[in-house]
Amino acid sequence: MTHRKKFSRFIAWTLVVFQAVSLTLVVGILYATLSNSMDHEFYNKLQVQEKEVSMALSDRLNQLEADIRDMSLNNAVRVNLMLGMKNQLLELMIMQYPFANGAFFFIQEMEDSKFIPELPESFTALKPYLQKLSQKKDLQKIEFHNFRDDLFLSLFSIPIYRKDDCLGMAHVFYDLTQDTHLLQRILGKSNAKLLIQTPGHLVDIRTDQSRILPGEIPDLTAKGSDHLLADLFPGENIIPLEIYPGLFYAASSEPLQKEKSSLIFKLVFLCTGIFLLTLLVSFLIVRKVSNPLESMAKQALEIAREPSSPSPQLQEEKLEYIEFHNLAHAFNQVLRSLLETQEKLQGRAKELDASEKRYRSLVETSPIGILSTDKDWKIIFANQILEEITDYSQADLCSMNFWDMVSSDEQDKMRQAGENYLRQGMYKGLEIRLIGKDGKLIWIEFRAIRIEEDSKQAILLNVMDITEQKQAREEKKELQIQLQHAHKMEAIGTLAGGIAHDFNNILLPIIGYTEMTIADMPEDSLIRKNLGEVLRAAELAKGLVHQILTFSRRTEKERKPLKIQPIIKESLKLLRASLPSTIEIHQNIDKECGAILADPTQIYQVIMNLCTNAYHAMREKGGILELTLTEVTIDSADLPHNLDMNSTPYLRLVISDTGHGMDRAVTERIFDPYFTTKSPGEGTGLGLSVVHGIISSHDGYINVYSEPGEGTTFYVYLPRIDVDTKVLDVISTKLVPKGEEYILLVDDDEQIVNVVQQILERLCYRVEARTSSVEALKAFQAQPEKFDLVITDLTMPNMTGTELAKRLIDIRSDIPIILCTGFSETISENKAKAIGIREYVMKPITTHSLAITIRKALNKDSG
């Protein structure tokens, strides 16, 4: 039988423990508060004593300062110094300024630097300090300085003048340890001490006792330090003298400890008395509580022995206290309620039968599939809706396990997850695929809860057909992903504009200076050849900027007749440097292929994207990257089934690799925006989509053939145009036109102004350059007829290029203006010409292009 505890004893112990804890806390708090107050009072007293000591030392030093000033003005001293009467001066010093109370007065002659009287041997090491002080022109004070470990002095020095002539120096050394009169005054007969700090020690001035400082302590030498070093040494509190770093006042903490001990004794005595009183009160309370409870317990036992008595209840009227009376009353009410409940149970049994019939009707007519299984998921019951969802009959379902209908690729995972959740009692919101009777896949969401039927564990499931909702969610998710990618590309486009402007401004000086340097080099110079490579790299960088802007749809595409062979060679040249040695490049380029009408930057982008994809397919095992360019005429009978091409001449570019290849499902989607087979962070899914868009915008076609493990081949078809290709080959050899006109050049970038000015002067133009649009306007206003042409940048502080152009046209309407910009979204070529600007060019511009543009602007004027 379990041992029971007496409630009365529990109450008694609770009161005792509570009172003991309370008294302990009160005593602790009182002691902490009063002790802190005592500490504060003691510290304040110590601070007052420290102030008194500081004032006494200050008075003593002020007196020494007055004495040394008096010595410097003493006529007898000055006469003896002036006449060189050293013996008389020595007698005078002994009589009027004797060595007393730690003060040693002496005079230093200026001529031979001798001291009168002679320095004691203990002070001879201080001669270098005195020599430095003899060069000062006024009073010098060194208060309580540790000149050596055993020499802690104050030093006063003042020159002795006769008119403007310095006769000597008056000095006084003050050794506080020798001033017994002052020490007796400030310390008296108390246990207080005055300490001097030396490296690692504190020295008692009165007893010369040295004590080692224990460990690291706050900086005691800092002026103004207010640290109280309590119990740095046993039984002592130390405080620094505020105005004299290195000096400390120490007082015994014994009186404070005695006060604290007395306080503890009083508090403990009070606590003991209260505790004893609490014991007595606890005993009385226990007696008052336990007696009524024992009486009610006896009556309850009697009722338990004879429950069939006419009126079984406790005697409430004999209980004195309200709480016990309420307890007995509640007990009697419980007895009456039990009797009433027994009568109601029979009625509830009938109601449960009716409820079961109603719930069965709800299950059968519910729009949600409902089934129950045993603990092993064998189906016991299924409603009609579940039959409609799966096309299985009731008999078929009841002969199956629920997991037999789950798709095989999800079965193990879902079974384990379902059982894990059911251990917690419920499983909800799981989406899985069921296999219907005809083999179709059905997306369902089911909820499961563990129940008991006939004292056996069972599982109740709700099944909802969400096939259509699932398809709608997948489509919505795909649209959201595409929208997120679109937002990213819009942000990249915004960034591309800012980069393009700055990068084009950087490229202009590079291209300009390189072109000028090439022109100055001999034809067979190695430097000229190397600079040619620099120029081609800069032109490639210019094209890359244009490619970035094209990709972000921030610049118009410039299409012109061109031959594709040089672009392929430049692309392979750049690509070869980045490919590993495990990948070989084979090329078969027909030099006789005709021209196409295209944007060279976009064609370069197509080649680089396709070659980069080929590299990614072969980077693990290596392989062969092959490019073939031929001119073909397409026969409709030879067309792939998915291409709708005209029977016209095309340039066919074939790019193939021997990589891992693709299956048919991937091949059908590779041109879809944002589709990618690369890992996150390796691609955006836009490369081949952009390639497809570029080829289509050039009225061309692209097709792909790939097999897993056999590599991939892309076929690009671009329509050939009828143009004399020999003309295209010699375009770059045309002469650069020159002139003698007067040009006003404006750009806020001084580096750009310098390079463009040199280019123009090499073209024989006369140039006046300005790095401020405001200054350029003033120059034009002063002599508007002086200038034949104005070349201005667009983005400049104070006044933009378009604003400057408008002001210049207002002054002289026929002035030709060329507007240059690295990149701008606020103005286009059409807007510029609407203002009256003759030509609109993008940086960086080559010497040849600049020369052509200048002649076009001037010829329009002459025309």
Structure explained in plain terms:
By secondary structure, the chain is of the alpha+beta class. Among the domains are: 109 residues, Beta-Lactamase (2-Layer Sandwich), CATH 3.30.450; 64 residues, no CATH class; 100 residues, Beta-Lactamase (2-Layer Sandwich), CATH 3.30.450; 170 residues, 2-Layer Sandwich (Heat Shock Protein 90), CATH 3.30.565; 128 residues, Response regulator (Rossmann fold), CATH 3.40.50.2300. The protein is built from 22 helices and 28 strands. It has a 6-stranded antiparallel β-sheet, covered by helices on one side. The longest helix has 67 residues. It starts with 6 loop residues before the first helix and ends with a helix. About 1% of the residues have low confidence.
From the spread of the alpha carbons, the general shape counts as flat
Specify the CATH architecture of one domain. Answer: 2-Layer Sandwich
Main-sheet strand order equals 8-7-6-11-10-9
Largest sheet: 6 strands, antiparallel
- Unreliable runs: 729-734
- Give the termini distance in whole angstroms: 125 Å
Structural class: alpha+beta
Please tell me how large the radius of gyration is: 53 Å
| Mean pLDDT reading | 78
Count, helices: 22
E-strand count: 28
Strand content: 15-25%
